[in-house]
Write a structure and sequence with these properties.
The strands form 2 sheets. A 4-stranded antiparallel β-sheet has the order 1-2-3-4, with no helix packed on it. It has 450 residues and is mostly helical. 41% of the residues are buried.
C-alpha cells in the first residue's frame, strides 16, 4: 500500500485523535512505497549454527546443533516477544546449553545487509521513511534516566506494536514491513542496528554525507520495555522554539544539532489525509516516484542537499513557493536568533551543513543504546586520507620571474625522473655531496695557490 512521506516531523494519522489538533514529531519522514509482507517471512528463525558463529559445535558430525535465533515480531496484530535459547540434540531429546559468546550483531552480516538496503532504496524510493524509522527509534532517549532500557533510545523497541501505535509513529509499520525480509535473511543483525543502518544508508544514497556510524546495539526483548508515548516532538506546538529545545535538550542535543537535523527535511512529503498537514498534491509530487501526492518541503524531495535552508531563506524574502511545505517548526529556525545563525550558514555553505549533519546524525543514532561489544562495531573506514603535497615548481627555482607552464612541466618531469614526487622528498646522496665539496675545495686551493 502507498505510505505517507514526511521527514524530521512525523505525520500521525488523523484517526489517532479526532478532538486534538494534528500532531507530528520533528523527525525523519516516510516515503511513498508499496509493499506486501510475506507472512512466512515473519516466522521465528531456527537454523543450524554457522561455523563463523560457533565452529566448535559444527565440528561434531554425530550431533546436530540448532540455535533458535531472535524471533521476528509479526507486523500489526501478530507481534511476538523475542526470546533466545540454544539447544543441542541428544539421544533423549533436547537439552539447553550455554550459548557461545558473540556480539549483538555480526559484522559480516551487517555489511551484507547494507547492500540489500541499498537495493531496496533503489527500487522502492523509501529513503525518507527509513531515516524517520531510525530517528524515531533513537529519539525517545531521556538523558535524565540512566537505566537501560528505561532511558529509551536506539534499542529496537519501535518494532513492537505498542510503540508503533504512538501517534508520532503513524505509518512507520510500512518501513518495518520493507525491512523485515532483510532482518529474516540476516538474523545476526539486531533490529536496533538494522534501523540505524537503514537510516544512515538512506542519507548517503540520496546524495548526503557519509555518516560515521558504529553498530552492536542490543535489542530490547519485550513490548513492556517500550518507552511511554509523548517523547517525540510535535510540528505545531504553541511555542515551536521552546518545544524543540525542550525535546532535544532532553536527548542531550544542542541548538546546532537541532538545526542540522532539521535540514533532513530536504527529503520527504506530507499527506493531509493522514496528518492534517500539507496539500493532497503539488506539481512536485503528482508524478511520484512511488505513490503520487502529498506536499514536499523541497522541489527535489529525494535529493539530500541544503535546498531546505535555501527555500526557507527565500520564504523570508517573500518569494514563497506555494507548492512547498513550511511548518511552524520549520519557520522558527529562521526566526529564533540562535537557530537562525546556523540556518543561514547552512543555506550558504552546503559543505558545512553536511559536516554538522553527519555528526548530529551519528550522535542521535547512538542515544540510549547499549553496545556489545562496549566500543561498538565499525564496518567502514573513516580514517582521514593523507593528501600528498601539491607540486609547486616555484619551490625549485631561485629566479624572480614566473616560470612558464612548459618549464614547470619539464622541471617536474626531471624531478620525478630521479626519484622525487610531491609526497616523497628527493633522497639525499651524502657520498656525492662529500665528493662535490672536496672537488670545490681542491679547485679553490689550486686557484689561490696560483
Amino acid at each position: 500500500m502507498a505510505e505517507r512521506v514526511s521527514l524530521i516531523l512525523s505525520l500521525p494519522s488523523v484517526s489517532h485523535s479526532r478532538t486534538s489538533p494534528p500532531r507530528m514529531a520533528a523527525f525523519a519522514g516516510g516515503a511513498a512505497v508499496s509493499s506486501r509482507l510475506n507472512p512466512s517471512a515473519t516466522r521465528a528463525s531456527l537454523c543450524l549454527t554457522s561455523s563463523s558463529r560457533s565452529p566448535s559445535l559444527v565440528s561434531f558430525t554425530s550431533l546436530a546443533s540448532l540455535k533458535c535465533l531472535r524471533s521476528s515480531p509479526r507486523i500489526s496484530h501478530l507481534f511476538l516477544d523475542q526470546s533466545r535459547a540454544e539447544v543441542r540434540a541428544s539421544s533423549g531429546g533436547y537439552s539447553t546449553v550455554s550459548a557461545p559468546k558473540s556480539f549483538a550483531s555480526d559484522p559480516d552480516q551487517l555489511k551484507s545487509a547494507r547492500e540489500d538496503i541499498k537495493e531496496l532504496l533503489r527500487t522502492k524510493f523509501c529513503h525518507p521513511i527509513m531515516i524517520r524509522l531510525g530517528w524515531h527509534d533513537a529519539g525517545t532517549y531521556n538523558n535524565n534516566i540512566e537505566e537501560w532500557p528505561q532511558r529509551g533510545g536506539a534499542n529496537g523497541s519501535l518494532r513492537f506494536e505498542v510503540e508503533l501505535k504512538h501517534a508520532a509513529n503513524a505509518g512507520l509499520v510500512s518501513a518495518l514491513k520493507l525491512l523485515q525480509p532483510i532482518k529474516d535473511k540476516y538474523s545476526g543483525v539486531t533490529y536496533a542496528d538494522l534501523f540505524q543502518l537503514a537510516s544512515a544508508i538512506a542519507v548517503e544514497e540520496a546524495g548526503g554525507p557519509k555518516i560515521p556510524m558504529k553498530y552492536g546495539r542490543v535489542d530490547v526483548s519485550a513490548p513492556e520495555q517500550c518507552p511511554e508515548e509523548g517523547r517525540l516532538p510535535d510540528a505545531g506546538p504553541p511555542s515551536p522554539a521552546d518545544h524543540l529545545r525542550q525535546v532535544f535538550y532532553r536527548m542531550g542535543l544542542n541548538d546546532k544539532e537541532i538545526v542540522a537535523l532539521s535540514g533532513a527535511h530536504t527529503l520527504g512529503r506530507s499527506r493531509p489525509e493522514r496528518s492534517g498537514w500539507g496539500k493532497p498534491e503539488t506539481k512536485y509530487t503528482k508524478d511520484g516516484p512511488g505513490a503520487p501526492g502529498g506536499q514536499s518541503w523541497t522541489a527535489q524531495w529525494l535529493k539530500f542537499d541544503n535546498s531546505y535552508f535555501k527555500v526557507k531563506t527565500s520564504d523570508i524574502k517573500e518569494r514563497k513557493d506555494e507548492d512547498l511545505l513550511v511548518l511552524p517548526t520549520d519557520a522558527v529556525l529562521f526566526e529564533d536568533l540562535s537557530f537562525k545563525v546556523y540556518a543561514e550558514k547552512y543555506a550558504e555553505d552546503q559543505e558545512a551543513f553536511f559536516k554538522d549533519y553527519a555528526e548530529a546524525h551519528a550522535n542521535l543514532s547512538n542515544l540510549g543504546a547499549k553496545f556489545d561489544p562496549p566500543e561498538g562495531i565499525v564496518i567502514d573506514d573513516f580514517s582521514p586520507k593523507v593528501q600528498p603535497e601539491k607540486f609547486v615548481a616555484a619551490k625549485y627555482s631561485t629566479g624572480k620571474r614566473e616560470l612558464s607552464e612548459s618549464m614547470k612541466q619539464k622541471i617536474r618531469a626531471e624531478y620525478e625522473a630521479i626519484g622525487g614526487s610531491p609526497d616523497k622528498p628527493l633522497p639525499t646522496n651524502y657520498f656525492l655531496n662529500i665528493m662535490i665539496v672536496i672537488a670545490v675545495l681542491a679547485i679553490l686551493t689550486f686557484l689561490l695557490g696560483n
